[in-house]
Amino acid sequence: FTADNHLNKYYAKMSPDQLAGRRQRLRDAWTQTVDYAIRERADIYLHGGDLFDSPNPRTSELIWVARQFQRLRDAGALIAVIGGNHDVPKTRLGGATPQRIYNEVQVARCFTRTTEIEWLTHTVDGTRVAIGGLGPDPRLGPDDDPLAGVPIEPPDADVVLLMAHYGVEGTLHPAIEEPQLSKASVAALNGVDYLLAGHVHERRTMKIGDVAVCFPGPTERMTFGEIEAPTGFLALAFDGRRPNVKSEIRHRSIDVQPMKRIEIRTTNLPADDPTEYVFKRLRSASHPDQLLLCRIEGPVSRDLYHRLRFFDIWQLGNELNFYFDLDRRGVTVRALEMPDTGHASERVSPRQEIRRVAEGLAAGVDDEERGVIEEAQELILERWQA
Length: 386
What we know:
Elements: H1 16-39, E1 44-47, H2 59-74, E2 78-82, H3 100-104, E3 109-111, E4 118-124, E5 127-134, E6 159-164, E7 167-168, E8 180-181, H4 183-187, E9 194-197, E10 204-208, E11 211-215, E12 232-239, E13 246-253, E14 259-265, H5 274-285, E15 291-300, H6 302-307, H7 310-320, E16 323-334, E17 345-347, H8 350-362, H9 367-385
Parallel strand pairs: 1-2, 2-3, 5-6, 6-9, 7-8, 9-11, 14-15, 15-16
Antiparallel strand pairs: 4-5, 10-11, 12-13, 16-17
Helix pairs in contact: 1-2, 5-7, 8-9
């Protein structure tokens, strides 16, 4: 069971080559779940939503998934999937969940209903498994319980699995306002043995009533905020007949693209050459296959601020890493007229920074290049004003 692969994800700050490489890494991570299922001769392959990062993935992504699903089918595995909040259209006018195409060509069973549970049964070596799916409903509000009013009528089976793509009460940050399954409604899932859930990018297993709730976590870390999140999928094994079914659930880790975050306090920057200090930190933290975020924060004098060559820092970071992001939103410049008490400060003006960078780029170049830089500066400032 896997979920939250987010194929075709778009990163606005990446170059075309970086974006292509990153998308390939997302595919590689998800493909490891397929490789494992084939290698271990899995009878059933389940997907809990957000296979894609949007309802309209590129054709190349659809083809890639089709090839992997065909590999699973050729190996004899039954495939059942649901959509997620990313790859289910927000309205009917948004089209269809992309996973439905595999249902139409009978490669995978796609559960699409949002107000009732669809079921299928599959018998393996005498053990009868029932699989249900409840797709996410984009019409629900933050106070809604997606299971409220949903009939729970699983077919007779030795093991009953229900897939959903929602957070469960207590698994989401309190500030997140979205529908989630209440513990009461999960406990009331009569006849359901396991709730296999996507959506929460965190590996977690809990028992609510008689229901085992399992989140596999993502197969790749999507943002720098997920650096500590374990990546992987679940391998489930069942043997026997109810009520004496033996079960085993293990989390399998996945090799993912390295990701790191470093923080530099301005109070540690030397006054004579702060940029070189940042360079040293970057060189010690970088790797050519890595996504690296460097966050610089704290108060600085105006003189020290102008000694920080942010463009050169960004350029070196990108040379040393697969992808580099420089976050300097936390840098504040102390006002000149105020005493150095650590209090009065001002945010850096983006317009001033644009001009300063342009002046730095124009230094030491010929007249033709300087003209191009000046034109670019004016165009940027014009669009900034707009």
